[in-house]
Amino acid sequence: MMFGITVNSWLQLGLYMCALTALAVPLGAFMARVLSGERHFLSPVLGPIERLMFALCGVRPDEESNWKGYALGVISFSLAGFLLLFVLLMTQAWGPLNPQGMANLTPDLAFNTAVSFVTNTNWQSYAGETTMSYFSQMVGLTVQNFVSAAVGIAVLAALIRGLSRQRDNMATDKVGNFWADMIRVNLNILLPLALIVTVALASQGVIQTFDAYATAKTLEGTDQVIALGPVASQEAIKMLGTNGGGFFNTNSAHPFENPTPLSNFIEMLSILIIPAALCFTFGRMVGDRKQGVAIFAAMTLVFVPFTVAAIGFEQSGNPHLVATGADTAANMEGKETRFGITNSAIWAAATTAASNGSVNAMHDSFTPLGGMVPMLLMKFGEVIYGGAGSGLYGMLVFVVLTVFIAGLMVGRTPEYLGKKIGAYEIKMASIAVLLPCAFVLIATAVALLTPWGQAGIYNPGAQGFSEVLYAVTSACNNNGSAFAGLSANTPFYNTLLGVCMLFGRFFVLLPVLAIAGSLAAKKTVPVSAGTLPTHTPLFIGILIGVIVLVGVLTYAPALALGPVVEHILMIKG
Amino acid sequence: MSLDSQIRPAVISLGLFTLLLGGAYPLASTALVGALFPNQSAGSLIRHGDTVIGSRLIGQNFTQPQYLWGRLSATGPAPYNAGASSGSNLGVNNPALLDASKARLDALNVSGPVPVNLMTASGSGLDPHISPAAAAIQVPRIAAARNLPEDRIRAAIAASTEDRTFGILGEARVNVLEVNLRLDGKFK
Predict the structure, then answer these.
(1) Where does the source fall among the domains of life (chain B) (predicted)?
(2) DSSP state of A326
């Protein structure tokens, strides 16, 4: 043991963080080229496809719009995606590629699932292998896995332009062309990465087949149905696009989604790689790489201690197990042997720091404090790396708030990257930060006060409360992971959580675009002695303080009632 | 800028991406990995003669004394249902958690502490592995049931044991189905 966790745990975590950083820097540079519409090494192949799509869609990439036009693009594209997916899920029984004869989804489940995938949440009220046809998985869900992530990155690009425009003093309120951004991200970033990860995962044993489910004659003489499907292609983008909706019910704990420690390492890297790399993209696009490094540092400085804590809590484990006759208390309930405690805990932290929401272990069976780590990371608003694009734009909202608060403390005019932060930006930032918090608390109360909400609870006592709190937190922050004991496939939860997901997506996304538009129209003021530098350790420290304070202060009472009570009950024996 | 002007790009781009990302991408992936990794992409299935008898990656339910036993499985209606994966989702203080552990301890009937992974349910309910220590404590039972020397059992376990990848990643583990195939003389 070393500082609370084993030496091997430090090694695995260290290797993960090194590989993540080493890959994020060059990917960040590449994405900056794509988002700026510059040529890159894949352009000879993808350029013609991109131009063809622009032509067919009637998109002129140089024709930019203001933030309202950009938002209109986001909304109409999301609405079209929702309608297509909703209809597809409601009619899958009559569609092709349905060897198991899956039935049409109920309207409430189709609503919940369509919202879930369009908002990049991928909350799963359904169990994949007993609900979805192969056609629904690949033509419905896989497509939204790509495009919902691309929407997030596009909105981030608009915000970055808002922050960096006007250096040439030409008045503009334009933030970009949504259609050009969205199409470019899908084609040039997500598709090539997904192909690489698909092949890597398939080499480890992730399946990719259209065969009907197999039936094995087991050694003890029973029949074992083995669910199959085109998994690898969906798994790759599920991880890369911070989606997290598994092909199977148990997600990346299932050996066909995640068969080896190496596939696990690749998938964990895929969770954080794009959100982390976007920090470096940001630094390049605003012409000051130190700004990107500072944000990456702030995220990492929150992520690593929380991950170490999660590993430590799970290794300390459940004393009841030792009392029953186990050799250690290490909490292996709900965890896979090949991953062990360390990889299950790192995954739990990574998947909730990013708004991925996939799992390789069952969070409901984590120790109370081990399970509080993923809950808290979601409650920070999914800005510690966060979702593809949405993580960094959420983080930049916190940066705007921090600049404002720090400016008040030292009596300076708040400005960020040369843009003066005014009342309008602070109002929008407050909406983006506070509304999701309010949704979480209100929806939790609604669920707990109604018989339909109480009916879904599985574990008794404080853990049952945590199941509801976790579900609502996950939906409102577009994460998608669960304390999966909760029976969420009911009209009540499908509707409540569907609405939470919509609010959580658009009540952050739209204020962010408003900030982008407002900042784009502002002049860039030159750096002076009165400028608060935003790349220093001091600023990083204040930024972390603001994020943690907002999260902890908002949720301390709720967390005390759930995980903390459960923990006290556990150690009392 | 009106909503009307957004309908064309929304509908057409969604249609094109559905064809490209929902059709061409998974189909091309299937062709590519099917050619590169034909066995893995089809589910790492194990055959005895013409009959599929399992998958190397999917655990099976073992309760008979002559077989190595795996993790507890919380799938329904029976354990190790690979058509409906599931964890137990039991919280640390849920009495059902310890009831399951105690039932497993009674069935194992060994003296001394039992490796915790043998007393707990896996996340997928299909975990194909247990730890080397969890395999070792079962050797006397299997040897007695098969009337074989313990060294033979240990050799079968050792042959199906993998260490951490690169000595760092994951955990050391024993593939339960593989060991039992070896013991039955069906391993290829």
Answers:
(1) Bacteria
(2) B
Residue B188 included in any domain: no
Q: How many domains does chain B divide into?
A: 2
| A252 CB-near residues (< 8 Å, 6+ apart) | A235, A239, A246, A258, A264, A267, A347, A358, A359, A360
One domain for residues B73 and B157: yes
Answer yes or no: is A67 within a domain.
yes
Give the per-residue pLDDT at A169: 55
Distance CA A470, CA B65 (A): 41
pLDDT for res B1: 55
Residue B104 CB coordination number (10 Å)? 19
Interface check B19 vs A, CB under 8 A: no
Number of domains in chain A: 1
Based on the domain organization, do B90 and B118 belong to the same domain?
yes
Q: Looking at the structure, tell me whether residues B92 and B135 fall in a common domain.
A: yes
Give a yes or no: residue A2 inside a domain: no
Report yes or no on A331 lying in a domain.
yes
Instruction: Tell me how far apart the alpha carbons of residues A57 and A51 are, in angstroms, rounded to a whole number.
Output: 10
Chain A contact probe: residue of B92, B102, B186 with most A CBs at under 10 A: B92
Residues within 8 A of B (CB atoms), A 150-189 only = 179, 182-183, 186
Read off the pLDDT of residues A512-563 as tens digits, 9 standing for 90 and up: 999 999 999 998 888 887 788 999 999 999 999 999 999 989 999 999 999 9
Kindly tell me the burial class for residue A194, based on how many C-beta atoms sit within 10 Å of its own C-beta (0-12, 13-18, 19 or more). Answer: buried
Residue B139 within a domain: yes
Domain of B20?
3-41
A208 min Cα distance to partner chain B (Å): 5
Express each pLDDT in A334-390 by its tens digit: 999 999 999 999 999 999 999 999 999 999 999 999 999 999 999 999 999 999 999
Q: Check CB contact of B47 with chain A, cutoff 8 Å.
A: no
Residue identified by tokens 């995954």 is A347
Q: Do B21 and B62 lie in a common domain? A: no
The minimal CB distance from B80 to the residues A224, A332, A365 is found for A224
B160 and B148 both lie in a single domain: yes
CB nearest to B165's CB, from A139, A254, A261:
A261
Put simply, the chain B residues between 142 and 181 with a CB less than 8 A from any chain A CB are: 164-165, 168-171, 173, 177, 180-181
Q: Which two tokens stand for residue B118?
A: 């043998």
- Which of B43, B46, B113 has its CB closest to that of A325? B113
Would you tell me the crossing angle of helices A462-476 and A368-379 to the nearest 10 degrees?
Answer: 20
Q: Considering only residues 341 to 370 of chain A, which have any Cβ-Cβ distance to chain B shorter than 8 Å?
A: 343-344, 359-362, 364-365, 367-368
ipTM above 0.90, yes or no: yes
pLDDT of residue A110: 98
**Do A485 and B91 make contact, defined as CB atoms within 8 angstroms?**
yes
pLDDT, mean of residues A203-230: 97
Q: How close B141 gets to chain A, by Cα (Å)?
A: 17
Please indicate whether residue B112 or residue A21 has the higher confidence score (pLDDT). Answer: A21
Does A464 fall in a domain?
A: yes
Q: What pTM value is reported for the model?
A: 0.97
